[in-house]
Amino acid sequence: ANVFVYDAKGQIGNFQTDFPIVKAKVSSAGNVAAVLSDSDTTWIKYYTSGGSEIAAASSTIKSPGYPTDIALSDDGLFLAVSYLTVNEGSVGTHLAFYNFGDAGKNVTDHMVASEDYSGTIIPEVTFVSNEEAIAFRENGFTIYKGSSTPAKTQSVDFEDEVVSTFCDSRHLGFIFKSKDADHKYVMKIYSINGALLTTTYVDVIYDTVKVCDDQVLFSNSTELSVFSLNGIE
């Protein structure tokens, strides 16, 4: 597969990968992390914008698992990978953090931190700053912070199933199905430190939701609905 890397001024690099790309992320520095599929083996490779390989690791569903999501810090120093694991019929997640600076030079595969979640899937992981990452679990979220070795600082659990998530550098948002028959959804917004800020009903039928300039935007093919962060439409 071909990878083309652009910044605001235009193309800064392009290269070809060995195998088809399942998922890819780019940092502000132009480095690219990609999940590549090769039959029974899945590769995670990290490249410069010109295609020079910085690091590579293979994975299977047995060890350490199948990568469901990857995330890069803006400076390209950290790579986070959420691996789906299966152990005796029970699914879980192996969450790993890789450091490509001084902290990761003398450790195997640059892995500086990891955590296993039994019975829980983490379908999404993202960096909200160079030193903060959010693991969006199917039953809540967990915040990791650290300049060299990420450590868990806060964890919030949900009883209800999460329908959608969104975030920026200061807010985390979650959409749930409403238990009130008069409303479609419930939106909860948290601070980046895990404090609940807003709970409000949302009745728009949407395809996408995101937060931008302190506003939450819900949209479908014909409509746009805008909410303030305190829940006012």
Poorly predicted runs are: none
Report the strand count.
Answer: 21
Largest sheet: 4 strands, antiparallel
In N-to-C order, the SSE pattern is EEEEEEEEEEEEEEEEEEEEE
Helix/strand class: mainly beta
Question: For the residues shown, what is the average pLDDT?
Answer: 95
Strand-residue proportion: over 45%
Morphology: globular
Strand arrangement across the biggest beta sheet: 3-4-5-6
Helix content: under 10%
Radius of gyration from the alpha-carbon trace, in angstroms: 19 Å
Report the end-to-end length measured between terminal Cα atoms: 43 Å
Descriptive account of the structure:
- There is one protein chain.
- This protein has strands at residues 2-7, 10-16, 21-26, 32-38, 41-47, 53-59, 66-72, 78-87, 90-99, 111-118, 124-129, 132-137, 140-145, 151-157, 162-167, 171-177, 185-191, 196-202, 208-212, 215-219, 224-228.
- It is mainly β and 233 residues long.
- Helix content is 0%, strand content 61%.
- The protein has a 4-stranded antiparallel β-sheet, with no helix packed on it. A 4-stranded antiparallel β-sheet has the order 7-8-9-10, with no helix packed on it. A 4-stranded antiparallel β-sheet has the order 11-12-13-14, with no helix packed on it.
- The protein starts with a strand and ends in a 5-residue tail after the last strand.
- It contains no helices and 21 strands.
